[in-house]
Amino acid sequence: MAFLSGGPFNGAHAVHPRPDRPTFHRPCPPRGRADAPRKGGPFSPWNEREGDEREGDEDGDGDIAMGMSGNRILRDMSAGVAVTRSFGIAALLFGLLFGVAAAGSGMPSGLAVLMSATVFAGSAQFPALTLWADPIPIGAIVLAAGFATSRHLLMGLSLAPQFAPYPWPVRLSAIAVLTDVNWVATRNIDPDIHVPAFLAGSGLAMYVPWLAGTLLGIAIPDLIDPVSLAALSFGGVVFVTVLVTMVAKSVTGPRSPLIVAGLVSVAVTPTIGPSLGVIVSVLAGAVAAILARRLARGPA
Amino acid sequence: MTDPMGIVTVLAMAAVVYGTRISGLLLAPLINRFTGVRDLLEILPGCALIAVLAPAVARGTPGEILAVLVTALVYWVTGKTLVSLALGLALVLASAHLIGG
Q: Do A142 and B9 touch (CB under 8 A)?
């Protein structure tokens, strides 16, 4: 896949990560050096799996997917579950918050469950509750959902090189459970791991608690006292804080684009709203990244 | 009985959100032509995440802002997801109950 060639920000660099950066993967030895030592990152599911040899895609022709046995796919799916299960607890909590909020908003409980089961995106679902009315403003709700989850586009683009060796039905199925957490978890894994299986496992570790939390919140809306409920609505921010810190720790290029995007979002979001605010901030971050790269290169 | 329009709305939301999820994979071959753009892809999703985070933190109460700072610091130092999340959520709850925000 041509995507994997060159560039300081390229995903191919993730194969040999900086040892001081957190990773979700088993850093693999360079191809052809099976005797090289392994140093699993702090979240690596492979740390205790010495002797777990896999055949890599030596010639880059995408035969990884073809050569993967069912056991290996299941094992890589389990690895996805393992690295994400900490966030699953948070997903249960936020699903519960969504269920309680849905019950309070007057949305029929069946629709709230259907929404959690099929949309599976808190950033789209919570705004939908605030827009829900009779008659239902379908256009506004659907448009808001698209804007709120537009960052999936960038995440999909960044994961595309890792998905390239796999058949399209596999790619399009696994990506259905893409979330912020899964993107962070999957972006740096080794190319010899079955990436769609890992992402699917990681997604299921979020999906199941999210759905269970929704059901719980609808069934027992008084489970949490009102003060705690109001406080936990900020829990999503704590959740994203961990994700952003993970990204900031693991990024191999300059971090200035993150700072610029954050500052711009604080400045513009109160005026133009969160959805457009994200788009403008990402553009500002892109400009900052380009400038940082040019500065790093020095004068021509 | 559930309003059919409600079901249509939810399913339309699901279709649009799924569309955003697959859009990156579908558009990658086109984006691949632009070397400068593809090199940005490591950092831009992170920019989107921080663009969601920063305004919410800016609107937070002192207790909530403290919780965010402690969460980030603990994760940065320890790299432990669950500890960071639990501590952050505990601080948010504690500040709400003890000082009202």
A: yes
Measure the CA–CA gap between A127 and A138, rounded to whole angstroms: 13
pLDDT digits (tens, 9 = 90+) for B69-90: 999 999 999 988 888 988 998 9
Residues of chain A contacting B92 with CB distance shorter than 8 Å:
231-232, 234-235, 238
Q: How far apart are CA A132 and CA A127, in angstroms?
A: 9
And the tokens for A167?
């058949």
| Contact yes or no for A199/A63 (Cβ under 8 A) | no
Give the largest CA-CA distance in chain B: 55
Residue scoring higher pLDDT (B30 or B39):
B30
Amino acid at A197: A
User: Contact A163/A196 with Cβ under 8 angstroms?
Assistant: yes
CB contact under 8 A, B13 and A151: no
Chain-chain contact of B47 with A158 (C-beta, under 8 angstroms): no
- Supply the ipTM of this predicted assembly: 0.85
Model confidence at A46: pLDDT above 50: no
Per residue in A91-111, pLDDT (tens digit) is 998 899 899 888 888 889 999
Specify the 3-state DSSP secondary structure of A67. Answer: helix
- pLDDT tens-place string over residues A144-155: 899 888 889 989
Could you tell me if A191 and A15 are in contact, meaning their C-beta atoms sit under 8 angstroms apart?
yes
Can you spell out the DSSP letters for B35-101? HHHHGGGGTHHHHHHHHHHHHHHHTS-HHHHHHHHHHHHHHHHH--HHHHHHHHHHHHHHHHHHT--
Measured between CA atoms, how close is A71 to chain B, in angstroms? 26
How far is Cα A59 from Cα A64, in angstroms, rounded to an integer? Answer: 10
A195-214 pLDDT, tens digit per residue, is 999 999 999 999 999 999 99
- Sign (positive or negative) of CA dihedral B63, B64, B65, B68: positive
- Tokens 């993150």 label which residue? A258
CA distance A16 to A14: 5
